């Protein structure tokens, strides 16, 4: 009888961690799970999740990830560690190193690429220890990297791959600002310079530049995209099987719903983009991020009755241009995530479900020790098979000549 997997979820009481757990324990799972160990500093959130799901495989553990000894104990005996602690909380490298020390496979949700390049430099150490790490396994990054791999595989030679993500909301306009994900992540996307791969090299670009307008099908319509800080452009153009095809350009661009976009632009104009540098208020040093988070969460909590029912629609797509058999060619891979009853209970189903897919494929397929970005580790066919089980609408097209 095969051993049932033991999975440790760090930050498992948070929005993304809870979503990963929901999918792992669903009837979509392709691995036998013996235990999901949930680690968080907030016991009430973990307890609420356990009570809701009522699954005996869930065990709850208090954890301060800033305590190295506690972190090491948390990973002992696990088959894989899912790091869903927010990237900008500053614990990414400590958790990554702890997984290596415990000889436990590792995934994180990556995000902005803040640590990606540094983590990839640990390739040989993980390989020598027989440990697998895959970085950035949510929707963007994560599924988006696999989309780019699928596009690259359709072309013999590559001139460019351009990657896009757009979200829109249907329903009554929300008078309350509800962040689509971590406030620090959104602010970084709008306020920090980013690297894009242009003319065969990485180039630093100013925030909110590279604007491009694209007409998409309803409900998105005409969308204006902009460059943003992310990890895909740091890894995809350098990946084996892509780099050798001559790629000269790789970009990642973002579009948030128009009114929300205006709100984040306004906050950056007000100075919240510099969210970690403290300001002095009556002799007390305060981080702008802490103030903004507290105000936003208070506003949401006190105005629940004013928040309308809205449905989120996401489109992720990559367009590759190059040649096939010497003829000009264009390949496009697109994934649409529409509202679905399956996603009830999830804050961001696409991110959480894709992280769960990555974990399950790592546990069920042949292991390859080392440190990888998703486009270098996962097979697009098997990955998309799992995505389609979660009602993600995937299309792949190629035009030659």
What features would you describe in this structure?
It is built from 14 helices and 18 strands. The protein has 401 residues and is α/β, with parallel strands linked by helices. The chain has two domains: 5-138 and 348-388, 3-Layer(aba) Sandwich (Rossmann fold), CATH 3.40.50.720; 143-346 and 393-400, Dihydrodipicolinate Reductase, domain 2. The strands form four sheets. A seven-stranded parallel sheet has the order 3-2-1-4-5-6-17, sandwiched between helices. Strands 10-11-12-7-15-16-18 form a seven-stranded mixed sheet, with helices on one face. α12 (349-364) crosses α14 (380-389). The longest helix has 16 residues, at 349-364. It starts with a strand and ends with a strand. 42% of the residues are buried. The mean pLDDT is 95. This is Saccharopine dehydrogenase NADP-binding domain-containing protein. It comes from Duganella violaceipulchra. InterPro entries: Sacchrp_dh_NADP-bd. Residues 8-134 form the Saccharopine dehydrogenase NADP binding domain. It holds the Pfam family Sacchrp_dh_NADP.
Q: Could you name the CATH topology of the largest domain? A: Dihydrodipicolinate Reductase, domain 2
Strand content: 25-35%
Give a count of the beta strands, DSSP E runs of length 2 or more.
18
User: Strand count, sense and closure of the main sheet?
Assistant: 7 strands, parallel
CATH architecture of the largest domain: 2-Layer Sandwich
Cα distance spanning the termini: 53 Å
- What is the CA-atom radius of gyration, in angstroms? 21 Å
Arrangement of strands in the largest sheet:
3-2-1-4-5-6-17
Number of domain units: 2
How helix-rich are the residues, as a percent range?
25-40%
InterPro entries: Sacchrp_dh_NADP-bd
Domain Saccharopine dehydrogenase NADP binding: 8-134
Protein name: Saccharopine dehydrogenase NADP-binding domain-containing protein
């Amino acid at each position: 009888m095969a051993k049932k997997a033991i999975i440790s979820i760090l930050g498992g009481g948070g929005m993304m961690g809870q979503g990963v757990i929901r999918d792992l324990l669903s009837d979509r799972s392709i691995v036998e799970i013996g235990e999901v160990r949930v680690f968080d500093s907030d016991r009430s959130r973990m307890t609420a999740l356990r009570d809701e799901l009522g699954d005996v495989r869930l065990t709850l553990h208090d954890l301060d990830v800033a305590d190295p000894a506690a972190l090491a104990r948390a990973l002992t005996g696990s088959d894989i560690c899912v790091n869903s602690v927010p990237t900008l909380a500053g614990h990414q490298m400590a958790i990554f190193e702890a997984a290596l020390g415990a000889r436990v496979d590792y995934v994180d949700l990556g995000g902005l690429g803040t640590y990606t390049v540094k983590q990839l430099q640990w390739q040989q150490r993980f390989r020598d220890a027989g440990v697998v790490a895959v970085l950035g396994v949510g929707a963007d990054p994560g599924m988006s990297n696999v989309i780019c791999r699928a596009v690259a595989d359709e072309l013999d030679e590559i001139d460019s791959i351009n990657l896009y993500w757009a979200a829109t909301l249907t329903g009554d306009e929300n008078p309350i600002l509800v962040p689509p994900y971590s406030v620090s992540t959104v602010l970084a996307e709008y306020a920090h310079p980013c690297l894009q791969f242009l003319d065969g090299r990485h180039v630093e670009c100013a925030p909110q530049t590279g604007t491009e307008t694209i007409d998409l099908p309803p409900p998105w319509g005409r969308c204006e995209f902009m460059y943003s800080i992310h990890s895909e452009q740091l890894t995809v153009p350098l990946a084996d099987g892509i780099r050798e095809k001559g790629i000269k350009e790789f970009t990642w661009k973002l579009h948030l719903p128009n009114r929300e976009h205006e709100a984040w632009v306004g906050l950056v104009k007000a100075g919240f983009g510099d969210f970690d540098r403290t300001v002095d208020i009556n002799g007390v040093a305060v981080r702008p991020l802490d103030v903004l988070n507290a105000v936003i969460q208070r506003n949401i909590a006190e105005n629940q009755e004013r928040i309308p029912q809205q449905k989120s629609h996401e489109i992720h797509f990559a367009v590759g241009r190059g040649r096939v058999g010497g003829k000009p060619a264009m390949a496009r891979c697109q994934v649409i995530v529409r509202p679905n009853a399956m996603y009830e209970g999830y804050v961001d189903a696409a991110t959480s479900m894709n992280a769960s897919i990555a974990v399950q494929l790592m546990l069920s397929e042949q292991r390859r020790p080392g440190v990888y970005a998703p486009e270098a580790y996962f097979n697009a066919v098997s990955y998309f098979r799992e995505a389609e089980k979660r009602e993600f609408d995937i299309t792949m097209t190629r035009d030659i000549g």
